[in-house]
């Protein structure tokens, strides 16, 4: 059956059937002199033609013939042949009997093929399966009503009407015209095509035809020579289910014989109004033709979606996407895409955000050895934004193949008071819980000049604001300048002078017990006294800044001889141990606590708590081990630490491995990257060497995001101006609730 006839509606086929039956009645009147032929052998031709029309392509089996239908038709045809009784009529010659036999063999073949096709369809043996399939093909091809009743008709025409030229000519022409050529179907198709051209001239213009589908959701279109579509154009096209719908144009794929347009079917919008109200256009679409559509004929949901495609569509969900990582086939290059950009894709009904971490080029082979190069972006899942809680929810599933992926538009976001930074180019904040930052320890890692000290200063201010005591051991003296608002410089200078006097005075204190010589013991006792006062919850200040390198503290290094002994000054590592152990001792006296009480900040940590292979003296090994032991015991008493270093490899892993929250800025050394890979994963570890200034990968218990994320850190000046205001802004992030 032709494609045109297949697209006719049920009413159209019924109308054509009535006209054809009328034509057969007229042929009977002209040939036999009666509107209705007799039921004898002289009427076999009429009833065969009528059966072919009624049972055939116009009504009962308009598309294909099932084996059961073929059996029914062959039985009816066999009964008609048996009723002719050609063998019992004396005046019929051998030629007539040959025609009858040939017709009967044809009918019997269809009957047997249909029966065997049904009987063997569930066969387990491959040869039988193939035989059953062959029988199915035979019953479908030979058992079609027009074919099987044509055999009966030809037998009747030659056998019973060849003696009368008028009957022979009129009946033969009637059959050829009404059953064979079927001109009314062709005429209906022509009218429909002409009608669709004029009926849709204001709302739809032919673009081309459907040549294939990329399931799910993608339709491939061969454009006509004089037409073309651009990204975001709305199209009317047949979906893979065969139903007409709305699609939006994407990109072109080149082949040797031309290029194909890829279009994305819209699942949310309903079928366009112009399609629903235009039956002719609907049938054209069902036949595979494609039209461009004006917005006047399309619903607002579809036009809005098309606008989003033109503005933000980046690509499609590509193969190898899993629950945690998104693979994107990039279909356009005019968008500002970069490392750290956010992408949006739907998983079920929810828009889920991913962050771009990598991009690679790919190539695939098309038809006739053509190749197509394209870019694939890799992104890690962030989650679904919850505007009420101002954080991301996890979505433990993955998007559908070919789902559209949109680029989150760039926004100039103000510094959010509660956020340590935002996703690059957006207003989505990343918050830090100061208490979890301390109780689970934290580290800021990065090379010189990328912003780790400014980040540490910000974290210290956030901890001070919530009442956490900070003891900052800073070799750079930068904290005293930047955080002068939060500590009493005069009081600290007085305490420093007191400690320094004690420390310097130990150079001449020689004792027969080596461990009692020097000033280390007295210095530690005075440190504990100072810290007892500072760590008292009633103490008004929450920040103490100390430089271990500025203290001169002596220890006796040998047994005395004639009241003389060798003396040595304590290193910054040993001074650090004294302050750390004294802090733990004071907090232990205050009892256990689930909340953070005090944070020890180790600025230039590679010099204060070095790894065993990076120490300047053997005494530093013992001092670092003592510091690490105190930190490991401190959590139960509200003590934690913040480690800041430029050299990850040179910091003791006994403490670094206990840092649950990590801020990883740009790093180059292989040891640092290998260490961070255990925290942030191989994907994010791979981007560390290319991070821009003031950018960091954040992961840990204190972060508002459960997985590692790449963020743009706050600028120091903007943070100070925002954070130190009396009343924080309720809408500082700029993200709409």
Question: Keywords for this structure?
Answer:
23 helices; disordered N terminus; disordered C terminus; single chain; alpha+beta; 10-stranded mixed sheet; 737 residues
What can you tell me about this protein's structure?
The structure is a single chain. Helix 4 packs parallel to helix 7, helix 7 packs antiparallel against helix 8 and helix 18 packs parallel to helix 20. The radius of gyration is 44 Å and the shape is rod-shaped. It has 23 helices and 25 strands. The N terminus and C terminus are likely disordered. The strands form four sheets. A ten-stranded mixed β-sheet has the order 15-14-25-24-23-16-22-21-17-18, sandwiched between helices. A six-stranded antiparallel β-barrel has the order 1-2-5-4-3-6. With 737 residues, it is of the alpha+beta class.
Number of helices: 23
Uncertain residue segments: 1-6, 365-370, 727-737
The main β sheet shows up as: 10 strands, mixed
The proportion of residues forming helix, as a percent range, comes to 40-55%
Instruction: Please state the overall shape, judged from the principal axes of the Cα atoms.
Output: rod-shaped
Strand coverage percent: 15-25%
**Strand element count:** 25
Distance between the termini: 59 Å
Mean pLDDT: 81
How much is the radius of gyration in Å? 44 Å
The assigned structural class equals alpha+beta
The order of strands across the largest sheet is 15-14-25-24-23-16-22-21-17-18
Map the helices and strands.
Blueprint (H helix, E strand, L loop, with lengths): L2 H4 L3 H23 L11 H12 L11 H18 L9 H26 L6 H17 L2 H17 L3 H17 L1 H17 L4 E11 L3 E6 L10 E5 L5 E12 L2 E8 L7 H5 L1 H8 L2 E5 L6 H13 E5 L7 E6 L11 E6 L2 E16 L5 E16 L4 E3 L10 E4 L11 E4 L6 E3 L2 H6 L2 E4 L6 H14 L3 E5 L4 H5 L6 H16 L15 H15 L8 E4 L7 E3 L10 E3 L2 H19 L2 E11 L1 H4 L9 H17 L2 E9 L7 H4 L4 E4 L5 H16 L9 E5 L9 E5 L2 H8 L14
Parallel strand pairs: 16-22, 16-23, 17-18, 17-21, 21-22
Antiparallel strand pairs: 1-2, 1-6, 2-5, 3-4, 3-6, 4-5, 7-8, 7-13, 8-11, 9-10, 9-13, 10-11, 11-12, 14-15, 14-25, 19-20, 23-24, 24-25
Helix pairs in contact: 2-3, 2-8, 3-7, 4-5, 4-7, 5-6, 5-7, 7-8, 16-17, 17-18, 18-20
């Amino acid at each position: 059956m032709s494609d045109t006839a297949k697209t006719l509606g049920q009413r159209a086929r019924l109308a054509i059937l009535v006209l054809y039956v009328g034509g057969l009645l007229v042929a009977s009147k002209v040939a036999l002199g009666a509107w209705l032929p007799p039921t004898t052998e002289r009427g076999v031709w009429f009833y065969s033609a009528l059966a072919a029309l009624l049972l055939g392509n116009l009504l009962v089996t308009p598309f294909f013939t099932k084996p059961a239908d073929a059996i029914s038709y062959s039985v009816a045809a066999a009964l008609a042949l048996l009723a002719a009784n050609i063998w019992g009529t004396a005046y019929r010659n051998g030629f007539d009997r040959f025609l009858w036999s040939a017709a009967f063999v044809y009918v019997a073949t269809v009957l047997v093929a249909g029966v065997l096709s049904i009987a063997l369809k569930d066969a387990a043996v491959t040869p039988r399966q193939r035989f059953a399939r062959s029988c199915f093909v035979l019953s479908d091809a030979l058992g079609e009503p027009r074919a099987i009743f044509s055999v009966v008709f030809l037998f009747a025409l030659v056998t019973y009407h060849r003696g009368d030229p008028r009957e022979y000519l009129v009946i033969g022409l009637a059959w050829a015209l009404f059953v064979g050529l079927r001109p009314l179907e062709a005429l209906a198709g022509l009218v429909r095509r002409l009608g669709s051209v004029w009926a849709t001239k204001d709302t739809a213009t032919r673009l081309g035809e459907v040549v294939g589908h990329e399931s799910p959701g993608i339709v491939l279109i061969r454009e006509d020579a004089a037409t073309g579509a651009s990204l975001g154009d709305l199209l009317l096209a047949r979906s893979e289910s065969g139903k007409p719908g709305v699609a939006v144009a994407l990109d072109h794929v080149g082949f040797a014989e031309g290029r194909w347009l890829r279009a994305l079917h819209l699942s949310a919008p309903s079928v366009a109004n112009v399609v629903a109200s235009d039956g002719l256009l609907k049938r054209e679409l069902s036949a595979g033709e494609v039209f461009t559509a004006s917005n006047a004929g399309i619903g607002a949901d579809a036009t809005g979606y098309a606008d989003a495609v033109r503005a933000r569509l980046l690509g499609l969900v590509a193969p190898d996407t899993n629950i945690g990582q998104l693979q994107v086939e990039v279909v356009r290059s005019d968008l500002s895409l970069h490392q750290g950009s956010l992408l949006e894709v739907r998983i079920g009904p929810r828009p889920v955000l991913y962050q771009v971490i990598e991009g690679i080029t790919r190539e695939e082979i098309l038809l006739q050895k053509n190749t197509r190069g394209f870019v694939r972006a890799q992104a890690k899942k962030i989650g679904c934004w919850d505007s009420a809680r101002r954080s991301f929810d996890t979505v433990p599933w993955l998007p559908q193949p070919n789902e559209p992926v949109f680029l989150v538009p760039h926004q100039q976001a103000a510094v959010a008071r509660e956020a340590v930074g935002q996703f690059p180019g957006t207003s989505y904040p990343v918050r830090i819980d100061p208490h979890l930052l301390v109780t689970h320890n934290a580290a800021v890692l990065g090379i010189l000049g990328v912003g780790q000290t400014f980040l540490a200063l910000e974290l210290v201010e956030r901890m001070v604001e919530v009442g956490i005591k900070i003891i900052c051991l800073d070799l750079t003296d930068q904290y005293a300048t930047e955080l002068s608002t939060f500590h009493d410089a005069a009081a600290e200078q007085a305490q420093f002078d007191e400690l320094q006097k004690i420390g310097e005075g130990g150079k001449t204190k020689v004792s027969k017990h080596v461990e009692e010589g020097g000033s280390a013991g007295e210095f530690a006792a005075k440190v504990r006294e100072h810290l007892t006062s500072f760590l008292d919850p009633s103490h008004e200040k929450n920040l103490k800044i100390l430089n271990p390198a500025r203290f001169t503290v002596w220890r006796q290094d040998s047994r005395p001889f004639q009241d003389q002994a060798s003396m040595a000054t304590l290193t910054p590592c040993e001074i650090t141990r004294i302050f750390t152990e004294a802090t733990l001792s004071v907090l232990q006296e205050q009892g256990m606590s689930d909340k953070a009480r005090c944070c020890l900040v180790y600025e230039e940590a590679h010099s204060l708590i070095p790894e065993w292979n990076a120490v300047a003296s053997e005494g530093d090994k013992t001092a670092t081990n003592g510091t690490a032991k105190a930190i490991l015991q401190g959590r139960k008493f509200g003590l934690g630490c913040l480690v800041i270093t430029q050299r990850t490899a040179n910091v003791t892993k006994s403490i670094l491995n206990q840092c649950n929250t990590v801020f990883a800025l740009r790093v180059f050394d292989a040891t640092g990257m290998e260490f961070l890979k255990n925290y942030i994963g191989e994907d994010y570890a791979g981007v560390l060497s290319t991070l821009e200034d003031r950018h960091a990968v954040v992961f840990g218990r204190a972060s508002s995001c459960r997985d590692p994320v790449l963020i743009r850190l706050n600028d120091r000046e903007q943070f100070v101006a925002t954070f130190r205001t009396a009343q924080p802004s309720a809408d500082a992030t700029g993200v709409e609730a």
